[in-house]
Specification:
By secondary structure, this protein is an all-beta fold. Helix content is about 0%, strand content about 60%. It contains no helices and eleven strands. Strands 2, 4, 5, 6, 9, 10 and 11 form a seven-stranded mixed β-sheet that branches. It has a four-stranded antiparallel β-sheet with strand order 1-3-8-7, with no helix packed on it. β4 and β5 form a beta hairpin. It is globular, with a radius of gyration of 14 Å. It starts with a strand and ends with a strand.
């Protein structure tokens, strides 16, 4: 099993920045794709960004110019640096990872709240 624990969420002002972290622990050989998703109240969970084990990234259009996803494979950790935050970015941000030993499965973290408000 793999556990994903997000951290770094909180309250920030519009235009501010925030860096989220997601650390993986448990039993696995390696972690493949990792990503960040978010879900605002009353809305479906949506993709924010993904990153492969080799560092290739993919972003939602809303995140391309403002967010940066990165990972530290030695620490089994993925990060999301967010800049120029707006109230529309307010959501619970979830970490996701594809990991396993003989076979891999998708795992979700519990989420961390990001609130952008004055």
């Amino acid at each position: 099993q793999v556990q994903l624990v997000e951290s770094g969420g909180g309250l920030v002002q519009p235009g501010g920045s925030l860096r989220l972290s997601c650390a993986a622990s448990g039993t696995f050989f390696s972690i493949g794709l990792m990503g960040w998703y978010r879900q605002a109240p009353g809305k479906q969970r949506e993709l924010v960004a993904t990153i492969t084990s080799s560092g290739s990234t993919n972003y939602a259009d809303s995140a391309k110019d403002r967010f940066t996803i990165s990972r530290d494979n030695a620490k089994n950790t993925v990060y999301l640096s967010m800049n120029s935050l707006t109230p529309e970015d307010t959501a619970v941000y979830y970490c996701r990872a594809y990991a396993g030993v003989h076979i891999s499965s998708w795992y979700w973290g519990q989420g961390t709240q990001v609130t952008v408000s004055s």
